[in-house]
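Give me the fold.
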Amino acid sequence: MAAYNYSPKVVDHFLHPRHLGTIADKEVDTAAERLVSADAGVVTRGDALRISLRVRISDETVVDARFLNFGTGLPIASASYVCDTIIGKKLSEATKLSVQDLDTALDGLPELKSNQPVLILDALNSAVNLFRGHAPVKVAKVEKAEPLICYCFRVPESVIERAIRLRGLTTSEAITAATHAGGGCHTCYMDLEDILARCKRGEYKVHIPEDEYYAAHKLYGIPMPSAEELARNPKPEVVQTSKVAPDGFVYPDKSPVAELVSTVARKPRPHKAWNELTREERLAWIEDVLEHDLRPAIRSDGGDVKLMDLKENRVLVSLHGHCKNCHSSLSTLKLGIEKRLQETVWPELEIEEVITP
């Protein structure tokens, strides 16, 4: 990070970062406060950051905030500024911080110069979601079998298109900075130009959910898509499955798991915190995660899971098919189902099996 490229405010926060470190459990008044931590970025890619928040439960006020940076020095200034700014503020105020706010406050945000995500805002939003019991934004996965555009860095076309649309990229150099595509032998530059031109014409191949557009708006500062652009957004592919077991459970015709997509449309995620949901809303949310995130993998092994009941934070399920009486059923329950429900629904949920005839 060359000091002469950035404002005095950025240089000051970079050389003298505020609130660098973590918050220890012993610093938290567990009767009145809660400690939450969240990560953003990818360590192996060289850009990762963690934020720790000490929040007063009664009024959701940030008592303390600290960060750790695990990659390049680029996010240090913005992370230092954000932690310094949100202390003493309520979470509702903290989450209003935008890329434009940081760019103005720091007289030029370093990340905007390199088309990079503002990791501290991503981590902050994740920490607030964790505190309130909201599910994190789920980013679509790229299929392993997808043809590559950049063989040097193994980047497929969907990753490039998503970067162009979600980051507002307009040049091949910007694509390389954002995805590494074209950063090796450069032979894919013509392909990058073709993808850029196609996206500029509004000819899209990749479905991007609206919640990812909103996340990109928060991270990169690009405008939300127009109604016209959303109308050109391809629909997600759906694969039909047909085999029905005697007990009513549906099993797939074939594997691998990547081909198993439920034909049932996902329900919109609740906008309320877990503690504000009715029992019916909680059950519907859990069932939606079971149906779309867990059952395809379980059914590919000839098993299934059925939601039986919810008692406080205990999710009662029954196992069927090959999962029933399987020696690995405990691992499926605790390391698979329970872990996924804790990550996407509510961190305090526990799974419990109900034995059925």
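Confidence is low (pLDDT under 50) at residues 139-144, 245-264.
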